Amino acid sequence: MGDSDKTKAQLIEELSTLRRRLAELQIFKDYRKLAEEARRRAYGELEHRIAERTAELVQANQQLKQEIEEHKRTKEYLENVIANSVDAIGIVDRHGKFILWNRRAAEIYGYQLEEFADKTAFELYADPDELDRMLGRLRRAGVVREFEILMKKKDGTIVPMDISISLLKDDHGRTIGSVCLARDLSGRKKSEAALKHAQAELRRYSRELERQVRERTREINSILRYTPSVVYIKDREGRYTLVNSRYEELFGMSREQICGKCDHDMFPRALADQIRASDLRVLAHRQPYQAEEAMPPPAGLRTYLSVKFPLYNEQGTPTGLCGIATDITELKQAQDQLRRLSGSIMANQEKERKAIARELHDELGQVLTALRMDAVWLSERLQAQDPKAGERALAMCGLIDHTIDEVRGLATRLRPGVLDDLGLIDALEWYIADFEKRTGIACTFKHRQVPNIDGIGATAAYRIVQEALTNVTRHAAATQVKVSLEPKKGMVTLAVADNGRGFDLREIAASECLGLAGMRERAGLLGGSLEIRSRPGKGTKVCFRLPADGSRSA
Q1: Most buried of 439, 456, 518, 536 (most Cβ within 10 A)?
Q2: Strand ranges, E, within 131-239
Q3: Mean pLDDT, residues 487-505
């Protein structure tokens, strides 16, 4: 039946049915859509959970690998520790059979692990009673530490050992074996014996040292008490901390009165300042210092040779100084007398030289001149009668001329007239030119703005140059000499320097020749100084210094 044949009610009913079906289809479609979304969500959650679980499994697997590796490293470490331990290590089961035996144990006992197949650990102990005591303590406490016991080595040697044992338990607390550590005490016993011997030796040495200290203390006290020298110690601030009995006698004060005081409390200000300056020099330079000091004790002014040197603590810091002063008043007086005597002798020598030079030049020179004139006259008379005799007479004239030159040179060297007539500089110029002519050694002389030097000063300077150049000729093997004379800082400096072979000053100091001693004596008489500088292969320089205003007339 077609739609045209249907009634309106039927059409409306079918329409309603269609609408209901459409609604159901829409609901079904929505449901399927929701179901699809739910499926997708469930699938996503499942994939997420699978990924999380997979990551957890990977992490767990990595952690397990790390634990396995760590366990492996720990095992290797423990095996290495056991194998290389300095102590013998053994592990036994509950029946005393060894299941582990390290290398050190094999070295100490002489057994390898396989040799214990039919042996137990108990067979290594030498004394059964000691073994029972140790096992009893092990059963009670479960551990034994540092138990000293005698044990047997493979070769039968009995040695003391230090044993530590710990029981091994299973999960149920049952004993399944034990771990034993053993240390050979033979070396320690020897060390203990050596230590006891060393301690005994140390006690003996200490007693001997104390005896020596007491003896040295008595000796030092005796030296401080009976020495004629003044001995004292000061701190860094200059306060006296120790003086000897001679110091007390010298100044009429007791040690208690002196200690704690400084020089300004005891001496005039000028003297105290001088003493303090030398003290500070010793502390600053950390070097010994020697000087002459004039002390005004009650008995009168005395001269002392004072030697000061620093004292140090354990850190090497100066804590003060010690001084030793020796009375040299009589020695100084004797030196002054000797110096005056030496000056008198040198002055007399110069007078004798001058007189001899005058006699050689005047009397002997005149005689030789007259003899030459006679020889010339004789030569002229004999030429015609006896030519050979005439030639001999003429040869005598040449010999006499040579003798006259030698006499004049000798007289000049004894006491050059130019020194008395024209002064030091002209005398040195003449002598240096004569030296260069006689020796063939190149010699130069430089001088500038030199004050007038005459008398004893000129004589001393001339003689020092003369002696220095004589030494150059004899010993230096030099090719060049430089002589200089110049003023410097209130002093006149005369220097003679050569380029010769030089020498070791220590050898000269050990055995000084008379020539150098004479030069030093001449310098000292004028209040001057003589310094010699030389090194092997580096030449020699002699420096004579005298005060510019200290020249004295003859």
Answers
A1: 456
A2: 143-152, 158-169, 175-184, 230-235
A3: 82
Q: 194 lies in a domain?
A: no
Confidence check: pLDDT of 21 > 50: yes
Same domain, 136 and 69: no
**CA dihedral over 373, 377, 378, 379, signed as positive or negative:** positive
CA atoms of 320 and 302, how far apart (whole Å)? 26
Domain boundary, last residue among 294, 309, 327: 327
Strand ranges inside 218-265, DSSP E: 230-235, 240-243
Per-residue pLDDT of 457-491, as tens digits, reads 777 777 788 788 888 888 888 888 888 888 877 77
CA distance 161 to 180: 12
Does residue 213 belong to any structural domain of this protein?
no
Residue 255: CATH number of its domain: 3.30.450.20
Token pair belonging to 245 = 């009995």
Containing H/E element for 83? helix 8-84
* pLDDT band of 493, cuts 50, 70, 90: confident
In a domain, 215, yes or no: no
Model confidence, pTM? 0.40
Please provide the size of the chain in residues.
Answer: 554
492 and 534 part of one domain:
yes
Q: What is the pLDDT of residues 31-49, one digit of tens each?
A: 777 777 877 887 788 788 8
Strands 175-184 and 230-235 turn out to be unpaired
Is residue 146 included in any domain, yes or no? yes
- The phi and psi torsions of 94 (rounded to 5 degrees) equal -70, -10
Q: Does 415 score more than 90 pLDDT? A: no
Q: How many domains does the chain have?
A: 5
* Whether the predicted pLDDT of 239 surpasses 90: yes
Same domain, 251 and 355: no
Q: Same domain for 100 and 155?
A: yes
Residue 361 banded pLDDT, cuts 50, 70, 90 = low
Give the residue-averaged pLDDT of 201-205: 88
Q: DSSP string of 311-338? A: EE-TTS-EEEEEEEEEE-HHHHHHHHHH
pLDDT at 299 over 60: no
Local structure of residue 287 (DSSP, 8 states): S
The last residue of a domain, from among 396, 415, 434: 415
Boundaries of domain holding 366: 334-415
Task: Note every long-range contact of 93-98, with CB atoms under 8 Å and residues 24 or more positions apart, other chains counting.
Answer: 93/176, 93/177, 94/175, 94/176, 94/177, 95/120, 96/120, 96/121, 96/122, 97/121
* Distance of alpha carbon 432 from alpha carbon 412, whole angstroms: 13
Instruction: For residue 456, count other CB atoms closer than 10 A to its CB.
Output: 21
